[in-house]
Structure formats: structure tokens, C-alpha cells
Fold:
Amino acid sequence: MSIELEHVSYVYNPGTPAQWQALRDVSLTIRPGEFVGLIGATGSGKSTLVQHMNGLLRPTSGRVRVFGMDTSDPRTDLTRVRQRVGLVFQYPEHQLFAATVAEELAYGPTNLGLAPEEVQRRVRWALRAVGLGEELLTRSPFSLSGGQARRVALAGVLAMRPDVLVLDEPAAGLDPLGRREILDLIRNLHREGMTIVLVSHSMEDVAELATRVVVLDQGRVVMDGPPRELFRRHRELAALGLAAPVAAQLVDALKARGWPVPGQAVTIREAVAEVTAALAARRRERRPEGGREGGRAGV
Amino acid sequence: MASRRGEPSEPYILVRDVTYRYPGPPGGEPVLALDRVGFRVYRGEFVAVLGRNGSGKSTLARLLNALLLPQEGEVRVDGLDTRDPANLWAIRDRVGMVFQNPDNQIVAAVVEEDVAFGPENQGLPPEEIRRRVEEALAAVGLTALRDRPPHLLSGGQKQRLAIAGALALRPACLVLDEPTAMLDPRGRAEVMATVTRLREEAGVAVVLITHFMDEAARADRVVVMDRGRVVLEGSPREIFAQADRLRALHLDLPPVVALAAELRAAGVPVPPGILTLDELVEALCRLS
Ligand SMILES: Nc1ncnc2c1ncn2[C@@H]1O[C@H](COP(=O)(O)OP(=O)(O)OP(=O)(O)O)[C@@H](O)[C@H]1O
Ligand SMILES: Nc1ncnc2c1ncn2[C@@H]1O[C@H](COP(=O)(O)OP(=O)(O)OP(=O)(O)O)[C@@H](O)[C@H]1O
Ligand SMILES: [Mg+2]
Ligand SMILES: [Mg+2]
Structure:
């Protein structure tokens, strides 16, 4: 197992007036090769949860094991945990620290003990993978635009080539092309065998990519299953501050209007298939009555 | 905006031929962020600003309330020149700003004090401050968290707090730089409803910078930037009819418009110009 959380609870600032329980008895196993989408309303505990996955936070009670290493055990080398589980922060400015983009990207691979040429190779690969040009290498990460900073933060973690990549809202603030490129990149890394945990408020992205969706509500796991099953539960999702993807909303609305659609689509491609199949079925039904639809080519 | 043509009304904010460069890295070239930009906001108007990463949107936003000053050209707010230091506070009263990163604008130790900070600085009477804080917290759905320390809020909660802080100043124009980037679907819907309500009930003009095309679809006017210039401008229907042009600019269609386009590509004769899910459902139901 890659990451195992057993009965994990987490309390911020215990014993002070600012005490806050952010996770409640969370048990969750991330298996090698999975692509887990983690969704939930703002404040539901997603960022708190993923920071347990690389030992940045340690449970107040319960246990977290990363490739067998117990993150609460003082003998565990957390550097090794972080080499295997790369976490891309929700806010790039919480992650970026170096004087230049080049140093930022070289930091992780250098710490892995890689040879300088290999470090440079990884830096260039990661920069290209996130769609940035080499002219940014000399810039300070703090002088970048919002989307540029996010790409650098992602590239810094990619350059380490971790076994598990945990991404906290990696596409927030990216332009639509950048979002598509980053999601394609993540999809490819997953195909090459990387385990992915993706925190996202975009139901469309999660529906397109994840093989499993976990839903948090007030620090608890309240749903866990394949996207196709989960995104059909429109009402429950809305009650949790979430929504179904647009494709699912469309087939749901058509079904409510009496269309003969299964109403199971969660991606655009699936919704188009349901709609065209329903229109074709109607056409077959009508044809025996005599070709009333002569002029409606294409339907 | 076609419907305004011929109206005598002056733009509330006028950006004329503005160029802005940031200092480059040591020994390097300066970074040209805005290149002779023209931009207008009318009273009560909802303008969405789109553009790829690094195209100059946030820089433009910072020029609208005199956080940055034009190096060439001019910016006028309600007739006031932003380069005149005497106008600074009058401009900040008129144009409220919510930044891309809410961490940068949190000032107080408790949520409601943070919202009260602006009105207090304006020297308003205590009852008026209290009323505005109530209203602003309710408008963004943070009333229940009023006693929490802001730095302990989640990302999305912080973003709503920043909006409340700007609202409490009752600006004539609110500039929002990616205010929904970290919000859940309900939070995004709430912010968009807040924007609509502000405009309809209080006549507040809104400039919304966003990477969500569906949010731009609800604006009166869409402005698209690329490499420091304004390259497209029009109603959402005009803009989102240009799928290829948008893709070349690193943008896209709103999900519903993309869905309608995919249906059309599959041979379903969905009419052009659809922007919302309701419109798409109605159009499909008329087909059968
Ligand atoms: N340092 C902290 N101290 C105290 N409470 C905190 C702290 N960080 C987060 N919290 C609280 O813990 C809860 C969970 O926060 P978390 O950041 O994990 O949520 P999230 O699901 O990632 O939200 P978002 O979608 O807005 O990023 C929230 O109620 C938040 O206010
Ligand atoms: N403080 C700064 N110093 C140097 N260059 C800067 C600074 N701030 C922004 N820039 C550069 O100016 C250009 C415009 O940046 P700006 O932040 O306005 O873009 P943006 O359209 O808001 O992008 P995003 O969608 O990523 O937020 C970019 O090339 C950026 O790298
Ligand atoms: Mg979070
Ligand atoms: Mg920006």
C-alpha cells in the first residue's frame, strides 16, 4: 500500500481558544497506481488531509503509514517520506523559497543526491512539462504572475519524480490552456505508473481523470467510490456545497423532461453519446409512421 | 458595448494608452506588462477580463485603484487622475479591490474586525460600521465564522473574507482578481450571485478577472488580453462564438458552450449562441 491512514483525527492549536478539529476519524488507503480525486467544500479538511500524506502534519490521534513508514514514529526519516510522496501546495507562495526559478527547481533533485547533469536535465524537463520557457530561469519566483508561480511550484515537485504525486488545487489560477496541459501531464504521469491524489474544486476535471473519488465533509470521509456512481448523487453533492459536472447536469435535466436517456454520463463525451442515442431512438420510433422528418438532416 | 453607443455618459474608469514595465531581473531587460492598453468601465457595468497567464490582467487591476501608476498614458477614475497624489484616497474610496491571493489583504486578528478595518479608517460612525460589517459578512456567507482568526480559515473562506472587506467600503466599482479560484461550486455560485446583486441593487460596477469562462459568460462585456494588450472585446455571445480565436489565445469555451459545440459536431442541430445550461436543455427539447 502506498499510503494508509487509520482513524486519523487532527486538531489545530489544541488547548487554545483557536482549537479546531479539522479531521475526524479518517481511514483511507491509497493503493499504488490509483488516481484519487479528493473533493469537498471549502474548509472540509482536504488540505489538512493531504499534508498528512507526506508527514508535514502528523495525526493528533490515529496513524499514517507511507510505504510502511509511520510518520509519527520519531525514528522515521521524513526526508525519505517526502522523496516518495511529492506534495504541491494549494498556494504556491507557501512552497516557493529560492532566489531564482533555476535554484527553486534544482533544490529537490540536488537533495536526492543526483549528479549535477542529471539535476539540470530534470530542471529543463520539469520546466518544459509545465509549459514555461527557459527565460524565466533567472527570474525570482516572487516576481512571477499567479499562473507562472503555480507552474514553477508544480515543476519543483515534478523534478523529484516522486512515486506518489499529491496535488492541492494544481490548476487553480491557470489559464484554460495551461489547465488542460497540466491535467494532460498528470494523466500521462499516471499512465506511466505514478500514483496521483488530486484535490480539486473542478468536478469536470475530477470526472475526466480520477478512477476513484473521495468526498470530505467537516473532516469526515462521507463518500468514496468510482466517479460514475458518485456524480450521479446530485442532491447529496449539492447539500455538501458541491455539484455534478455540467455533462451530468445536462443528462439529468433531459431525463427529468422525459427524455429516454440513462442519465449516467459524467463527461462531455458520454453526454453527447446519450443525447445522440436518444435522438436516434426517437427517429427509429417515428420512421414507421411515415417520413415526417424529411428536412431534418443530421438528426 | 453597442447599446451604449451614442449615450452621453462618460466611462466611470478610463484607461487610455497605458504602458507599464516592471524592473527585470538584475542585469536583465524590464518586463513589459502593459503595452498601450485602452480600457473603460461604465457605471454599474459588469466587465469580465480574460487572458492567458502573464498577459497583464493583475497589472491592469492594480492600475485601476492607483496601486500602480501608468508610466505612459493615463488612468482616470470618476474623472480623477490617478497620478495626482491628492486624489489617492478619493480613488481608493471609489474602487475596491480583491486580490488574487487573499492572504495579502488580511489585516486583523478576528474576522469581523478585518471587515470593519476599512470603514473604521474612513471614520464612519460605529452604528454604520456595525451595519456594514453585518451586511458584508452575510453577503459572503461568513456570519457564523465572525469570531474566528482569519489566518486559521480555509483557502475558500479567506477569499470570501477578502470580498467582504472590500464590500464594506461600498465602492462604486469593485475589482475582483480571480476571487473564485479557490472556491467550491457553492462558494463560486454565491460569489457570482453577490456580484449580480451588487450590480442590480446597488449599481456597483464590477471588473472580474477570471480563468472561468462560465463566469465571463454572465458579464455585460468581455475584454480579452494577450501579451499586455487588449485583443478582443464584445458581448459574451460575440466572444464565445469565436472558439478558434479563443483557443489561440490560450482560452476556451465555457463548459456549456463546449458541450453544445460537441453536440453540434456529432450532428445534433443545436442553434448557436447558447450560453447557459437552461438554454441548452430548452434547445434540445425543441428538437424532438
Ligand atoms: N492553521 C490552522 N489553525 C486552525 N484551524 C485551521 C488551520 N488551518 C485550517 N484550519 C481549519 O481547518 C478546517 C480545514 O481546513 P483545510 O484547509 O484543510 O480545508 P480545505 O478543505 O482544504 O478547504 P479549501 O477548499 O478552502 O482549501 C477549516 O475549518 C479551517 O478553518
Ligand atoms: N513584480 C513583478 N516584477 C517583475 N515582473 C512582473 C511582476 N509582476 C508581474 N510581472 C510580469 O508582468 C507580466 C504580467 O503579469 P500579471 O501579473 O499582470 O499577469 P496576469 O495576466 O495577471 O497573469 P495570471 O493569469 O497568471 O495571474 C508577466 O510577464 C509577469 O511575469
Ligand atoms: Mg485547501
Ligand atoms: Mg493575475
User: Anything to note?
Assistant: The radius of gyration of chain B is 20 Å. Chain B touches chain A through 52 residues (CB under 8 Å). Residues A 143-148; B 22, 31, 33, 51, 53-59, 100 surround adenosine-5'-triphosphate (ligand 2) (CB under 6 Å). The first strand of chain B starts at residue 13 and ends at 22.
